[in-house]
Structure formats: structure tokens, C-alpha cells
């Protein structure tokens, strides 16, 4: 099946802009996207006028998420922040599972970061066309609980692993520092790694620089602003890589389906090594 990249028209529809061949087994298309629970925001005052949509169901949520599913279907591994795992506001639908089905991803993983019962189940999701060898859910440190990470390990044919961390970091600098330290410790002996998500901080921040200095992770596009989607000025969403993973394409997509813009990258696996097939 041919995969396509999409752009958003003035009318809100997504249209194909560039047809691509399927992955060769040595290349991987990654995407990170803060989906804001399916809420479409296009102006600053929407934080006030649309605030009720964070608490209650509304008809446009699933329509917007269908557009999200259409867009993300062009990628191989997708990390999604600000979803809901099935509460009143999402009509008790696990949004990770919903996007997995609509986007055609056979492997989907949900981590509930903050469980408010009936009212909200704040979550993040990881979708993949390649089956991970192992997936681990992490609770990130911080005085206020509710931040997490999803770790996925993909087995390579040479016996090594590609490890991917999907994160959504805290708003406070001290909490972000401890959370990035937590990630750095776990990447200390990982030769092939990706860290992606909503970092809530700029590449020039002290905590971001500290992560890079400890791990050697590279930021291919350090100045690519993603927030707010209607007038991006802040570089909050990142995909960081170890040096061995070469980049063939990376961009921020002008797809305004949330208050963040999605960031995507295509990488080549180390030494052109394909994934190892995992027995069923």
C-alpha cells in the first residue's frame, strides 16, 4: 500500500501532497503530536471558549479525530500526547484505540497518566506498524503526579535494539529536569535511541541541554516551532536521535488539528539493519 503525506486546506480537509513508497524495512517514519483530546484550536481565545470541551463530550471531537487518523496514517510509529483513555468527555472511548483502528495501526499502547475516573482519564498513546519486542510504561518523577513515558523496544536483525521513549513532560522546569534525568539514566548504555514528544521546553533551556550533554542525543531541527499551531513561536515538540540514526526527512507539518503542530521525521536504521521478525 502506498503511503501519502497530507496537508490541510483552508476548508479544513486533508489532502495528499506527496505519494511515497512503503517502508523498506530499513527506514522508519516517526511522528509526535499533541492532539489536545481532539480539540481543534485556531485562536488564543479558544482556550476560554472551548475550555468546556476538556470536560464534556461534544460532537466535533470524533470528527476532528478522524482527520487526525487520516493524517497520522502516513507514518510508521506515532507518539500521541493529551488523549483520553475512556471517560465522560470522550464518550467512554479509548482515543488511542480509536485512532489505531481509524489509522490502520495494528499495534497500539495506552498509558493513563492521570485518572480522574468518570470525568477524565488523561493519557498518551503509541501506535506502530512494526511490532515492538517489548513495551514498558514509566511513571516520571515530579511533585505533582501525572506525567509518564512509554518505552518501546524494536528488535533489529543484528541482535541489537532500537529503543524509543515517548514523553509528555511537566510545565515546571525543576520537574522537567528530574524527568529528563530519569530518561537519560535509562539511555546511558543504549546505542540506538529515539526520544520524542511534548517536552514543554525550548532546546536552549538548561534541562534540555543537560539531557543532550548526558546522552549525546541530536536535535535535527532545533528551531522548528510547533506551538501555538495558529502562530507557532515556541519549540516544544521534539524528536531526538542518537548519532547513528541518519535523517532523510524532518519537518513540522502545517496541520492545525490541535493547539500544537505535529513534527515528523524519517530515519534510516543503523548500518542499514532491518527489523528482526518477531514470532507470532
Description:
This protein is of the alpha+beta class and 280 residues long. The chain has a single domain (3-271), classed as Deoxyribonuclease I, Chain A (4-Layer Sandwich), CATH 3.60.10. The chain contains five helices and 13 strands. It has helices at 46-49, 60-72, 95-103, 173-186, 206-215; strands at 3-8, 14-20, 27-34, 77-84, 107-115, 121-128, 134-139, 148-155, 161-168, 193-198, 237-241, 246-252, 263-268. The strands form three sheets. Strands 5-6-4-3-13-12 form a six-stranded mixed beta sheet. Strands 7-8-9-10-11 form a five-stranded mixed beta sheet, with no helix packed on it. A two-stranded antiparallel ribbon has the order 1-2. Helix 2 (60-72) packs across helix 3 (95-103).
Rg of Cα set: 18 Å
| CATH top level assignment | Alpha Beta
Q: What is the terminal-to-terminal distance?
A: 22 Å
CATH hierarchy: architecture: 4-Layer Sandwich
Largest sheet: 6 strands, mixed
- The CATH topology is what? Deoxyribonuclease I, Chain A
Give the count of helical stretches: 5
Spans of at least 5 consecutive residues whose pLDDT stays below 50 are 1-23
Mean pLDDT reading: 88
**Beta-strand residue percentage:** 25-35%
Count the E strands.
13
Which geometry do the CA atoms define?
globular
Describe the strand arrangement of the main beta sheet, using strand numbers: 5-6-4-3-13-12
Number of domains: 1
Order of helices and strands: EEEHHEHEEEEEHEHEEE
CATH superfamily: Endonuclease/exonuclease/phosphatase
Fraction of residues in helices? 10-25%
Structural class: alpha+beta
Oligomer: single chain
Amino acid at each position: 500500500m502506498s503511503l501519502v503525506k497530507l496537508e490541510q486546506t483552508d476548508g479544513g480537509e486533508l489532502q495528499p501532497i506527496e505519494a511515497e513508497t512503503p517502508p523498506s524495512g530499513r527506514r522508519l517514519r516517526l511522528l509526535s503530536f499533541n492532539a489536545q483530546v481532539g480539540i481543534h484550536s485556531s485562536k488564543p481565545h479558544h482556550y476560554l471558549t472551548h475550555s468546556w470541551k476538556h470536560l464534556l463530550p461534544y460532537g466535533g471531537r470524533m470528527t476532528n479525530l478522524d482527520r487526525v487518523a487520516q493524517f497520522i496514517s502516513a507514518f510508521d510509529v506515532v507518539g500521541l500526547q493529551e488523549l483520553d483513555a475512556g471517560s465522560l468527555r470522550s464518550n467512554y472511548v479509548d482515543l488511542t484505540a480509536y485512532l489505531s483502528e481509524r489509522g490502520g495501526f495494528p499495534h497500539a499502547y495506552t498509558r493513563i497518566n492521570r485518572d480522574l475516573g468518570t470525568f477524565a482519564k488523561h493519557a498518551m498513546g503509541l501506535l506502530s506498524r512494526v511490532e515492538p519486542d517489548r513495551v514498558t510504561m514509566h511513571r516520571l518523577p515530579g511533585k505533582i503526579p501525572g506525567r509518564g513515558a512509554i518505552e518501546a523496544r524494536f528488535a533489529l536483525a543484528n541482535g541489537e535494539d532500537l529503543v524509543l521513549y515517548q514523553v509528555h513532560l511537566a510545565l515546571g522546569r525543576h520537574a522537567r529536569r528530574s524527568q529528563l534525568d530519569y530518561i537519560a539514566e535509562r539511555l546511558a548504555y543504549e546505542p540506538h535511541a529515539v526520544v520524542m514528544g511534548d517536552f514543554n521546553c525550548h532546546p536552549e533551556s538548561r534541562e534540555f541541554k543537560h539531557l543532550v550533554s548526558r546522552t549525546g542525543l541530536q536535535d535535527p531541527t532545533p528551531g522548528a516551532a510547533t506551538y501555538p499551531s495558529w502562530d507557532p513561536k515556541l519549540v516544544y515538540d521534539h524528536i531526538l536521535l542518537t548519532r547513528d540514526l541518519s535523517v532523510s526527512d524532518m519537518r513540522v507539518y502545517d496541520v492545525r488539528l490541535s493547539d500544537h503542530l505535529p513534527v515528523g521525521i524519517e530515519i534510516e536504521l543503523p548500518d542499514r539493519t532491518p527489523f528482526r521478525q518477531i514470532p507470532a
